[in-house]
Design goal:
By secondary structure, the protein is an alpha+beta fold. It has helices at 15-37, 41-52, 58-65, 69-81, 103-111, 113-123, 127-151, and strands at 56-57, 85-90, 93-101, 155-157, 163-165.
Length: 171
């Protein structure tokens, strides 16, 4: 008698796919609005980080967005070319680059309000419903990052289908 490996969950039943496809739908909803602002979605995320707190290092922005600094650098150069940010070496640490908003980048924040309004309208949800959903997703994200950091790897399914964390790799 041959043992059958458990079949994977159907794609539409997987949380990862639900989150991924919802993210793609939001980006598609935002695309025409971002086009009017002259931004791509990743650029919009960087601008949001800077609108919250101006004058941050590349490393700090990268940590906020869970990106590598090397991934962020070309994006920041394009924002600088568009005159939305300026990049300056930190006088106290020449290895650090500080990213600051220009006056044009600051003004863009008031125009970007339309994205949240568009999502609210298209979702058919109340602001409090979307806020609660966002809080749940952030909590899930933080828990997963905590587990990845704790074990040094992602989680893997056990033989019975339960999810268990890998043992930390020997260092």
């Amino acid at each position: 008698m041959t043992e059958h490996a458990p079949s994977p969950q159907q794609l539409e039943d997987q949380l990862c796919y639900g989150l991924y496809s919802a993210s793609m739908a939001i980006q598609r909803l935002y695309r025409p609005l971002l086009d009017e602002l002259g931004l791509t979605y990743p650029q919009y995320l960087v601008m949001n980080v800077l609108w919250r707190e101006d004058a941050q290092t590349v490393g700090t922005i990268a940590r906020h967005l869970a990106l590598e600094s090397s991934t962020l650098t070309p994006l920041l150069k394009r924002l600088e070319t568009a005159r939305l940010v300026k990049r300056l070496r930190n006088p106290d640490n020449e290895r650090q680059v500080i990213i600051s908003l220009t006056s044009q980048g600051t003004k863009l924040q008031t125009q970007a309000v339309c994205l949240n309004a568009g999502l609210l309208k298209a979702s058919g949800r109340t602001p409090s419903e979307l806020d609660a959903l966002n809080q749940q997703i952030r909590h899930l994200r933080d828990t997963l990052y905590e587990q990845i950091g704790r074990w040094g790897t992602a989680v893997e399914p056990a033989e019975d289908g339960a999810v268990v964390a890998d043992q930390p790799a020997a260092r």
